[in-house]
Design a protein that fits this description.
Layout: E1 4-11, E2 16-22, H1 24-29, E3 35-39, E4 47-50, E5 53-55, E6 60-66, H2 70-78, E7 84-85, E8 87-92, E9 103-109, H3 113-125, E10 129-136, H4 145-151, E11 154-159, E12 166-167, H5 170-180, E13 186-190, H6 193-203, E14 209-213, E15 229-232, E16 235-238, H7 239-242, E17 245-247, H8 253-261, H9 264-293
Parallel strand pairs: 9-10, 9-13, 10-11, 11-12, 13-14
Antiparallel strand pairs: 1-2, 1-7, 2-6, 3-4, 3-8, 5-6, 14-17, 15-16
Helix pairs in contact: 2-9, 5-6
């Protein structure tokens, strides 16, 4: 058995789930903003996942995953407490700089809520006044609100339908926080590219430093493949070794979203092929079981 045993799992919704993995060395080394590359099995693809939490005492790291593609769907089906991951490499990437800002706004949207937590906690540990803004589609998808309340001086929850907190996108929460606290020194935002673009646009008029965590497609995680290149101002950077955190006011989000869109069809075909294989396996299993009963 591999050393990367899954010791905890929690399902937040039908597509979002948490895995807690035993890896004492990585737990000791992990810092906010870093990521890992995971392989489910020997034939599996390498997927980058941001570290959502780490516990140095327990020797574990936590990943929060959204089942949107073939591998993340397969992990949702197969990753249970007691099972193991084939490979787990990290921590990778440049740790998020936890500055000495006096007042910080930490913004997470959707799956970005999980990786923004270590940063909010890190800022709180340095003595900053931390305002959290987290966004979800509805109240049934809200998770970790109690964890955020323990490390945030204020927490603003935004939902698309207004079922909890304020109605609207996280940009509505940002605007509310800025109006109440015009002395915010820094904003850190993690989430889908379109959401981070909105956050950068919301803070630009106020000239508030805004850092975002980019999520381009990665292969090797060492800067060799060039797949994760992003445009930052007039420079080209590699998110795996230069990031994943960059100045949100300099990021070319349109280019990032265009590059991500190029792989949509390939990802869809891979998911359809896997789903078809699963159906065939279930049908064969059902026929074998029926034959054995006879």
């Amino acid at each position: 058995m591999a050393n990367y045993e899954i010791v905890g799992r929690e399902d937040f919704s039908d597509v979002t789930y948490l895995l807690e993995i035993h890896h004492p060395m990585m737990a000791r080394a992990a810092k906010p903003g870093q990521f890992v590359i995971v392989m489910l099995n020997e034939q599996g693809e390498r997927i980058p996942l941001t570290i959502a939490d780490f516990d140095r005492d327990k020797g574990t790291i936590t990943l929060v995953i959204q089942a949107v593609g073939k591998t993340t769907r397969q992990m949702q089906d197969e990753c249970r407490v007691g099972s193991s991951l084939y490979a787990l490499v990290g921590p990778m990437g440049v740790p998020s700089p936890i500055s000495h800002a006096r007042k910080v706004l930490c913004v997470g949207g959707g799956l970005g809520v999980a990786p923004i937590f270590p940063q909010a906690r890190g800022f709180k540990e340095t003595g900053a006044y931390v305002i959290g803004v987290v966004g979800f589609r509805n109240k049934n998808l809200v998770f970790w609100d109690e964890k955020f309340k323990r490390c945030c001086d204020e927490l603003i929850i935004c939902t698309d339908d207004g079922s909890v907190g304020i109605k609207g996108l996280v940009t509505a929460g940002i605007q509310q926080a800025i109006e109440k606290h015009p002395d915010i020194d820094e904003v850190v935002a993690i989430g889908p590219p379109i959401m981070m673009k909105g956050c950068a646009d919301a803070t630009r008029p106020y000239k508030i430093k805004t850092m975002v965590s980019l999520n381009p497609v990665m292969v090797d995680g060492t800067g060799m493949c060039g797949g994760c290149r992003v445009k930052i101002g007039d420079q080209v950077k590699f998110a795996c070794v230069d990031g994943p955190d960059f100045d949100g006011h300099l990021v070319d989000f349109d280019d990032l979203m265009t590059r991500l869109g190029r792989y949509t069809q390939t990802e869809r075909k891979a998911l359809e092929h896997w789903e078809k294989s699963c159906r065939l396996q279930r049908e064969v299993g059902a026929r074998v079981e029926s034959a054995n009963q006879v």
